[in-house]
User: What shape does this take?
Amino acid sequence: MDSLSRHEQLLRVFHLIDILFGARQPLSTAELKDRLQSRGVIDEMSDKNIRRDVEFLVRFGYAVKETKKRSPRGATVQAWEIRPGRGAVELAAPAITLPELLSLAVARDLLAPLAGTIYWRGVSQVIDKLERVATPELLAYVGDHQEGLVVHPRPAGGKYRSRMLNAVHRAIRNSLELEIRYTSLADTKPKKSTIRPEAIVLYDGAVYIAARRAPSAGRKASRGNGDIRFFKLDRVTDARVTSRTFDRPPTPVADLLADSITIYRSTDPPRRYRIRVEPERARWAVEKPFHPRQKVRQQADGGVILEIERAWDGEMIPQLLALGEMVEVLDPLDVRERIADMARAIVARYSGRPRRAADTLPASG
Assistant: This one.
C-alpha cells in the first residue's frame, strides 16, 4: 500500500471508530458506508474494503463484535458493534471525535511555542484523553506514520516561564491592565510599561502580546499612543497583573493584522501600492501570496502586477528589497525613489574592496 492509500485508510479507520462508538445498535456494511459518505470521508467504496477496515480495528485491539441484522429489505446481513470492554482496559466513548484528537497529536510540533500557556495545557489534556481512548497498538501505528508531517524549522518549546504566561492570559481574559518590564530593540535594559493586552499572537515561531499602552496621568497624549503594539514575549522579563480594568476595543486583533504581511504596525496611515513582479517570481507572488489582500493582474509576458490598497512603507520596503531585480514598484513614486537610493548605496558598498572586519566580541551563551 502506498503512502497516500495508507493515510486515506487511517482517516477512514478513525471515523469508523467514532461512528461505531456513537451507534446504539450494530451497523451493517451499507450503513457504515452511508455514514462515511455523509461525513465526506469517501465517495464510493467496496464492501470488501469496509470489511478490511473493520478487521484493521480488531487487529489493533478494539473489541469489535460481528453479528447479524435485518436489512431494510428483510435480508440478513453482516453488522458490527464496538463493545466497551477489552479485558482489563476500558475503551470509553470519546467526548471529542477521534479524527480531531489524532490531528492534534500529529500537529503537536506546530503548537510547541505555546508550551506553558493555557492553550498548551488544554492540548495536553486532550491528548491524554486520546491515549485513554486509543489502544496502544493504534497509537504506535500513528506514531510510525508521523514522518509524513515535517515541521521546519522546529519551534522551540517551553522557553517561556509558566508564571509569566499565566499572568498574560489572566490579564487578557479579564481585561486587566498588565505591568511589564520590557527591553525593546532600541533599549539596552528593561523599562517598565503598563499595557492593555488584547491577545496572544503566534507569529513566525515566537509569541507576542498584542496590546495598547495604558494612558498615564503624567504623560502627554501623543499620536499613536492608543494604537495596537506587539510586545515579543522573549523581551519581557516580568509581568504582573493589576486590578485596573479596561474596555476592550471592538475591532479584533486579527482584523487589525489583515493589512500586514508580518505583524508590523505604524502610526502613519497605510498607502496604496502597485508592484510589478517579473515572470520568474510571478507564480511565487500569487501562491504565497506576497500580501494577504493583494489583487493580481496577469501580464502578457507572464509577469503580474499586484495592487495592494493598504500597506505600510516600513513593512513593504524591506520585503521589496529582498526580491531585488525581480520586482518594480510602480506606485507610490516616492517609494520608487527611496528604493533607487538604497540600490545605489548597495552598489557603492559592493563596488570597492571589502572593509576590514572590526574586532569581534566573544560569542554569547
